Amino acid sequence: MDKLDGEVLVSDFKQIKLEKEAQKNWDLFYKRNSTNFFKDRHWTTREFEELKACREFASQQLVLLEAGCGVGNCIFPLLEDDLNIFVYACDFSPRAVEFVKKNPLYSPERCCAFQCDLTKDDLRENVPEGSVDVITLIFVLSAVHPDKMKLVLQNISRVLKPGGIALFRDYGLHDHAMLRFKSGSKLGENFYVRQDGTRSYFFSKDFLAELFEEVGLQPVTNDYVLRETVNKKEGLCVPRVFLQSKFTKPSQSQTLRGFEASIMRDTED
Is the distance from CB of 213 to CB of 219 less than 8 angstroms? Predict the structure, then answer.
């Protein structure tokens, strides 16, 4: 049970202000922290074998979109590790995108970084429709207002190839970060604001599956990942709960088979 369930929500006025200032707050976050806040994510190819395995042949160039790339902690390890990959990378924060472009590993031949509000800017202005093999959404959707999450998924779905896959990892329900929020932080069900004005949503499996299925992406896996983070300074062992999931865009043949099966059922009824 959420310890803040009975708490009065942050006022509508402040919630509207937070939504309006969401980009500014993330830009300030990157101004304060530069490229030093998040560690490089060398675990992505271990956790998501699709980054290796989804090629039809060994020499195929993999096209990837990282939606919400931050300063590149995920994409640069991938670009170093895999010489046959092209990455589109976008972020809400113009400052984060500039950090990506200034990275010594950034090369326009292998990477295209651009600023984008995924809730309203059409990705197809920078990424050809149906051209992407793999999309990563890693600790990104949690920063979006729940009412706008479906818009993000509709946006990414348009550039994903039929048969392509979306890889998701984010905060799960009852994660330690959720339990640490103090009184006055709650914006809505499973949705909170940090002291710096950035916001975070904590996902259940059912809510996430429903979101993706509403935009036509089908679940492959959708499970909680339990980890423990050791805070050596304070001598604490902190329980972490993440949700790690994979969703696929049906190929045309799969869509056709599903349509035919639906007609058969209707006929039998």
Answer: yes
